[in-house]
Amino acid sequence: MDLEAFSSQLTALRDRALTALEDAVDPDALEEVASAYLGRKGELTALLSGIGALPAADRPRVGALANPIRQQLDAAVATRRERLNSIALEVRLAQERIDVTMPGRALTRGSLHPIPETYREIVRVLGRFGFVTFDSPEVETDELNFQLLNIPADHPARDLWDTIYVEPPASDAATATSLEAPTVEAPRWLLRTHTSPGQIRAMREMRPPIRLLTPGRCYRHEAVDASHGFEFFQVEGLMVDEGTTMAHLRGLLDEFAHALFGAERPTRFRPGYYPFTEPSVAFDIQCVVCDGSGCSACGRSGWMTILGAGMVHPVVMRNGGLDPERYQGFAFGMGIDRIAMLRHGIPDLRAFLADDLRFLERS
Amino acid sequence: MRVPLSWLREYVDFDLSPEALAERLTLLGMEVRGIERIGADWSSVVVGELLDVAPHPNADRLSLTRVNVGAGKPELSIVCGARNIEIGQRVPVALPGAVLPGGRRIDVTKKAGIDSEGMLCSGAELGLTTDADGILILDPATEIGQHLSDLLGEVVLDVDVKPNRGDALSIVGLAREVAAALDTQAREPMVTVDESGDATDAHVSVEVRDPLRCPRFVARYMDGITIRPSPVSVQVRLMAAGMRPISNVVDASNYVMLELGKPTHAFDAARVTDGHLIVRAAEPAERLETLDHAQRDLTPETLLIADSTGPLAIAGVMGGAASEVTGATTAVIIESAIFDPVMIRRTGQHYALRSEASLRFEKGQESRLARLGADRTAQLILEWAGGRAAKGAIDTDPADPPALRLVFRPERIVRLLGVEVAAGEMRALLNRVGIETAPATAADVVVIAIGARPIPLDAAGAHTALVAIVPGHRRDLAIEADIAEEVARIRGYETLPGRRPDTLMPTYRPDPHAATDRIRDLLSGRGLSEVVTFSLIAPGDHARLGDGRDDPATIRATNPVTVEHSELRRSLIPELSRVLVDNERQRRDDVAIFETGITHRWTDGQPVERHQLGILLAGLASPPTWDAPSRPVDVADAKGLIEWLVGRVAVGRVRYEPATVRAGVEHPGRTAVVAVEQASGTPVELGRVGELDPRYLAAVGARAERAIYAVIDLDGLARLAPTGRRITVLERLPGVDRDIAVVIDRSRPAGEVEDLIHAAGGAHLRSVSLFDRYQGPQIGEHEVSLTYRLRFEPGERPLEEKEIDTTISAITQALSDRLGARLRA
Ligand SMILES: [Zn+2]
Question: Which residues of B fall within a CB distance of 8 Å from A211?
Answer without folding.
Answer: 501, 505-506
